[in-house]
Amino acid sequence: MKTIKRMLLLGIAMILILAGCAKSTDKKAVVVATMLDSEGSVLGQMILQLLADNDIETVNRLNFGTPDILRTALENGEVDLVVDYTGSGQYYHPEDATDTTIWNDPVKGYEFTEKLDREKKNIFWLTPSSANNTESIALKRSFAEANDIVDMADLAEYINAGKPFKLILSSKFAENQLGLLGFETQYGFKLDDNQLIILSSGNTAEMLQALVNGTNGVNASLVYGTDGALDKMDLVVVEDPKHIPPVYLPTPVIRGEVLDLYPEIRSILKPVFESLTLEVLQTLNAKVAYDGENAADVAEAYLKDNGFLEK
Amino acid sequence: MKPGRISFVTGGFLVFLSWTLLAWGEFKINRVSRGITIRMMDVIPLYGWILMIAIFIVSFWFELYRPKIKQTVLLWILTIAPALCLIGISGFVPSLTEFDPNVARVSLGIGFYLFLGGILLMVSKGKGGQTRIVSTLVWVFVALGSGFADSLGLIREYNNLQDVFVRELFRHVTLALLSACLAILPGVMLGYASLRYPKAKEWIFGFVHLFQVAPTLSLLALMMIPLTALSRAFPFLADLGIKGIGFAPAFIVLFLYSLLPITSNTYAGLSQTDPFVLESATALGMTEKQKFRRIWFPLSLPAIFAGIRTAMTQNIGNTILAGLVGGGGMGALIFLGLSQSALDLVLLGTIPVVTMALLIDAIFAILEKTTIKRLGVKYDPHRTIG
Known about the structure:
The complex is a heterodimer of chains A (311) and B (386). With 311 residues, chain A is of the alpha/beta class. Chain A has 14 helices and 10 strands. A 5-stranded mixed beta sheet of chain A has the order 2-1-3-10-4. A 5-stranded mixed beta sheet of chain A has the order 7-6-8-5-9. In chain A, helix 2 packs across helix 13 (278-289) and helix 2 packs across helix 14. Chain B has 386 residues and is an all-alpha fold. Chain B has 2 domains: 3-149, no CATH class; 158-375, MetI-like fold (Orthogonal Bundle). Chain B contains 16 helices and 3 strands. A 3-stranded antiparallel beta sheet of chain B has the order 2-1-3. Classes of the chains: A alpha/beta (311), B mainly alpha (386). At the A-B interface, helix 1, strand 2, helix 3 and helix 10 of A face helix 8, helix 10 and helix 15 of B.
């Protein structure tokens, strides 16, 4: 019987400790969270370091989870400040996103998402970076050169000639009018099921590895604009002159209540995100994902080299 | 053949196989590229080879022809072999390729793991086998922490994420153990209730099984909806940390998962108590309460303990999924590694989970024994489920 009593006491003690922990977190600290990828680590670290430099207390929840989990957490107030991508607005406000043409325009897409989030959810999109993390198709450099493929029209010609082609991609991209379906109608080709390998997640690291190693005969892969490893892996992106997939600009997104508490966050992050061009983000991501450097160090070095933090 | 000899010979065969056929590791010039295969001959210098083969042959000769001579010393020497090989593999440098020494890394391959497994089997033979197994593993961990194996991908990832690693490890343990601990009392009570009220049994078992068959991840996702609604309706809950995402849903799901092993084991333990013993207790004039406290409960304790043990071990593994809903834990590292296709990072998250599960299992085995001894219960393995 003693054991039971002890266990009971232990259990109660643990509940109390847990409750204590939950209460002791300072409500004013800004909870910064990002997605589970290298870019999330780098941009998140930048935000953490910049806020700390401005004496704003933060809670580090970087690499919080998948994009949809992160969004839910933001809407529920579990996290305060995240990095999101402008094109995702089409999934957040599907009932209003009937006009699909706006997503190909960086400004219109941003304005649409920003306005709806502000009015409906009290969530604020701050100044975006100019780096377009959009979806494209990547090929091996040697393959592209041998077959003279530069843009999507060349690729369509190659496919229509009936030559071997196997594309690895995510299900979200495969079934999207602003994705593969759009490519097919706009450039005039059609892939059948055995020319596709569809993964449920949008994890391009796996896909690129399959492409580089030629796993299962894969010779083309979905890729994101800011993926750092492209150059080092000797891959090229097939140009898309018609800009079918949406523009995805990485943007700090913050809950209204927190922005009211710390209005200065807007101006702290603005110059930094404006400085993040496509090339810059690719280099930073490559350092983390490819060279295996610590994301905090990469972020710190960038901020210091560019004068956003004092050396 | 004696079981000791079987494990020795099987282990020796594995070691031989790993030497001759398999890749011991991969040298990668960066984190994600395909690497250069490292074979055993690349790593160990000639005299090392001769020494190893000598030890190998001698120990086999002893084993097969001079079984009476003690070969404990040889077995003890073998315990350090995996650790030395680890350092050897980590020091591998390809001759022709250009690379950046701060970036390049070595990942361990199937050959090494097979070698480790083979050595573990070999040293487990005879008296003191368990101590030798533990010491082999301790040597490996010492080699990993010594600084001589720093070019291993595993160590590089660890050095990069040290503070995150410690934080998530702590969170993982808290999440897994706390939820299982809290499930003990309700689990035991449900088990007792299903014996006392046979009509309720179906319902109770249906309830606890329901959570077991629902995939953990979907349960986590389903949890988000009611929890979010709750925390919105009662803001004080949100202040306590009960929100639709993060710690709370992971905790609740793990709690529900721990119920089944505890409840069903309690039920099994209670229902298998010898009816004659109970009858004697009634004859002695014991009340229901006394009977439960003095007879039923202590007699079924081994089974209940086994249930708790299962719940704890299972929880350690399941907690990985909390990483997907912002609950943290080792899953955060594993999924980050998967998303960057950095297998060393995945491994860095997995190894502690496996180690913890084994450790907790071992701790509970000891705890079980001592508690039962102290209560003076005679353990009859044929009567109890465990």
